[in-house]
Design brief:
CATH class of the largest domain: Alpha Beta
Number of strands: 13
Strand content: 5-15%
Number of helices: 25
Structural class: alpha/beta
Oligomer: single chain
Strand order of the largest sheet: 7-9-10-11-8-12-13
Bound molecules: adenosine-5'-triphosphate, magnesium ion
Length: 550
């Protein structure tokens, strides 16, 4: 955080009238200001304690100032306007720094009381600049606004200098770690250092330092067990943040059935991320992201997690529903924060799952916020320079505005269909293996035959069933069922789960083909519940020119 210290020092020595520090580390910024402001009267203001004199001790030898300030403070009410009056008065003769905490809450433009404060601050800024009233002495004042949110009233836009505290980069974390190791006389292998750095990304400097101390205090050493400590901590803060969920890459799936095209495409992107610096130098565009849409339960969310595993990048899941806040500007602020976190740990993957949920309001133009949020997201995606790879998933893209799907937003759009025979087999194998069962004793071809028989049965049922869906739907559906498609990956997984459960309860060591077939016989493919939507989905897929994922 040396740069912060430098920023503060520069601001003070340049007597800048008003600056805004957006930071999650209020204490740290206050500490730095105190250090750098020894020759000033230093006051803070917050709505609970009102005005506080932070460096009273420095003034014990200057009785004139001491008595005057004490006197004035004694009769001061904790009101912000009163505080501003006091500051104006004192800074006419004494060099003063005034720090406003939680500044954003005091400057909401829609609040009449705040409007007055904003006007007052504007007057102060004018007086500091001293270019307003000829005979009046200019104020000897710098105002520091501090908050974890950035909210700048338009009246002050031109006056305020903004600083944002960044999360340390990988290299900086490495430095912090090395310093810490030296200080504690500890050592770590190079591989573990890399793991530590990844686990500590996205945290502030003081959090990193605290965690390292905590890790050592626990058991006297730093080792791979501490990575869990960091990750758990990160999960917690990210949970506090509630918009973004940090997903532990070590627990992600290493395999996925089918989706061959998607996998190949992702592998290309992985090779770019792996050699990002040389790729950029060569002229390769940094991959922006991919949109996956299609059938429910067929692996969209799974593929997102798999991507993080494949690329070995940290995965952040953004909950679009939670981005939307009830207060003016809150949603944008939430998104900004989420993006900031993702960028701070770049290269990273930002996974926006079920994007359509946030888009529910867009189509009818009923929600300005949603439109603004998406505008902001798209602009960021287009302009972003940091390597944050976006994976968005959706079931239903009918609510997504077409401009969101235009080329250039996403590198590619994939349609995730029901798995075909080959992919179904892979999915069976993956899920049996995951449960520690091998499939040598199972004839998957015969299981597939049974699945097909079920789908035929469904086709027969639908032909008799008049009036379900449109004519189009029925044609698409028929074609699907003919190809043996209609079960989702999730369907297959639940079949496997039941088979394994049965085998356990019946005390069986190995699983037979018949065991699987028995469960398939009772199963119900997801396509049955989707029958009225399917035509539309395929139609859209064609219109936007999505690539088949498999
Ligand atoms: N291709 C696949 N390979 C292996 N497992 C799969 C596959 N597709 C789905 N599954 C299994 O089904 C579960 C549900 O899949 P997933 O959550 O990825 O579906 P989805 O496409 O995101 O569905 P939704 O649209 O409902 O969000 C997964 O946890 C996984 O176990
Ligand atoms: Mg999903």
């Amino acid at each position: 955080m040396e740069s912060l210290q430098e920023d503060v020092r520069n601001v003070i020595s340049a007597s800048h009238p008003i600056v805004y520090f957006r930071t999650d580390e209020e204490i740290e910024v206050l500490r730095i200001i105190s250090q750098e402001a020894a020759d000033y009267l230093l006051f803070s203001y917050d709505e609970i304690d009102g005005v506080r004199w932070l460096n009273e001790r420095n003034y014990k030898n200057n009785r004139r100032v001491l008595l005057r300030v004490r006197n004035q403070l004694e009769s001061l009410k904790p009101d912000f306007l009163e505080a501003l009056s006091f500051i104006r008065d004192i800074s006419r003769s004494e060099r003063t720094i005034f720090v406003v905490l939680s500044a954003d809450t005091l400057m909401k433009e829609e609040n009449p009381q705040s409007q007055k404060s904003i006007r007052f601050i504007k007057n102060l800024v004018n007086e500091i600049k001293g270019d307003l009233v000829e005979d009046e002495e200019s104020l000897l004042l710098s105002i520091f606004l501090i908050s974890d949110k950035l909210l700048i009233p338009s009246l002050l836009e031109k006056d305020i200098l903004v600083f944002e505290a960044d999360y340390p980069s990988r290299d900086e974390i490495r430095e912090i770690l090395d310093e810490f190791l030296e200080m504690q006389d500890l050592s770590l292998s190079d591989e573990l250092k890399v793991e530590f750095v990844s686990a500590l990304q996205g945290l502030t400097r003081s959090e990193i330092e605290n965690l390292l101390f905590l890790a050592v205090i626990n058991d006297g050493v730093l080792d791979d067990k501490d990575v869990d400590l960091f990750i758990n901590y990160k999960k917690q803060i990210v949970r506090k943040n509630a918009i973004i969920e940090y997903i532990d890459v070590r627990k992600l799936p290493t395999d996925i059935g089918g989706l061959k095209n998607l996998k190949e495409w992702l592998e290309r992107k992985r090779d770019i991320f792996k050699n990002l610096d040389t790729a950029i130098k060569y002229g390769v565009d940094i991959p922006k992201g991919v949109l996956l849409f299609g059938m429910p339960g067929c692996g969209k969310s799974l593929a997102s997690k798999y991507t993080a595993k494949l690329m070995g990048l940290p995965l952040l899941r953004l909950d679009m529903g939670r981005i939307m806040g009830p207060y003016l500007g809150q949603s944008e602020e939430n998104l900004r924060k989420a993006i900031k976190i993702a960028e701070s740990i770049a290269p990273s993957i930002l996974w926006i799952d079920e994007i359509e949920k946030a888009l529910a309001g867009v189509k009818g133009g009923s929600s300005d916020t949603v439109v603004r949020i998406f505008g902001a997201l798209l602009t960021w995606m287009q302009e972003k320079e940091k390597p944050v790879f976006v994976i968005a998933t959706a079931n239903d893209i009918s609510a997504i505005p077409p401009e969101f799907l235009r080329k250039g937003r996403f590198d590619e759009i994939f349609f995730v269909d029901f798995p075909d025979d080959k992919s179904i087999k892979e999915i069976f194998e993956i899920h049996f293996k995951k449960r520690g069962k091998n499939t040598n004793s199972i004839d998957l071809e015969r299981v597939l035959e049974e699945l097909r028989r079920k789908l035929n049965e469904l086709e027969g049922k639908l032909s008799n069933h008049k009036g379900s869906g449109g004519q189009e739907d029925f044609k698409v559906l028929k074609k699907l069922l003919k190809e043996g498609k209609g079960y989702s990956g999730a369907d297959i997984e639940s079949i496997v789960s039941e088979v394994v459960e049965n085998a356990f309860l019946n005390g069986k060591e190995t699983i037979s083909t018949e065991d699987v077939i028995a469960v398939v016989r009772k199963s119900k493919p997801i396509v049955e519940t989707l029958k009225d939507k399917i035509g539309d989905l395929y139609d859209r897929c064609e219109k936007i020119g999505a690539q088949p994922a498999d």
